[in-house]
């Protein structure tokens, strides 16, 4: 009889132990899953977000503290880098402007010997590229630091907005004899977005499409509304060799097959600025190649 009681007691304790273990494991699993969801929700540009502490002092609580500490260090490093870029860009504007003034005026007055003029013109061209680079760096820094306000949202008539953006690049397109077409841009479609950020996104993509086009090529811009999103595509002809992972083109100073010492115009920040502008207003920028002779950029903007 005592033997049966002992066996019964053992079974009861075993069952209770299993239940207790399951409850503890289930609770830990839920806490880990909650942390995992918060980590997955973190966005690259959202440096202020932290994992919500659960008030515990166990290993899970220490893990949360470690993750938040890492995010603090990442935010501090990123902000320091942005401040450096912004400050350096501001400081460079003065000497660049001084060089342009001290070379341009004497050149226009014919005060340089004829054999020196070609070198002066090359120096001025390089100086202008430096000025463009500084301005692009400042723009990128302002977007990433939130100086260009993503909250300044207004209702934009998409067709009118695209027409205005195309007018800005019309001269550049004409110089290269590029045929520009628009498709499916309904006159009644509105997009709720920051005009400043939309200017930077669409404008830089259009300039990129012209700059990296072929002579007498094509540029097609289309816009459509699908469910809860507005999709804008900009497609251009190209004969450039592009990386297998097109997302690399979003990285600063990545210029496809053109090196930084190439005679091709541009400073390698157009797609970086467009991507940063899209991210700041909650949109996405995707890059792909419909075929070997074309390149396409697609902006997807959430709509109400």
From TrEMBL:
Catalytic reaction equation(s): ATP + protein L-histidine = ADP + protein N-phospho-L-histidine
SUPFAM superfamilies per UniProt: ATPase domain of HSP90 chaperone/DNA topoisomerase II/histidine kinase, HAMP domain-like, Homodimeric domain of signal transducing histidine kinase
Domain of life: Bacteria
Residues in Histidine kinase domain copies: 87-304
Compartmental location: Cell membrane
Lineage: Bacteria, Bacillati, Actinomycetota, Actinomycetes, Bifidobacteriales
Name this polypeptide is given: histidine kinase
Keyword Plastid: no
Boundaries of every HAMP domain copy: 26-79
Entry keyword set: Kinase, Membrane, Phosphoprotein, Transferase, Transmembrane, Transmembrane helix, Two-component regulatory system
One annotated GO molecular function: phosphorelay sensor kinase activity
EC id: 2.7.13.3
Top EC category: transferase
Entry keyword annotation includes Acyltransferase: no
Pfam families in the record: HAMP, HATPase_c, HisKA
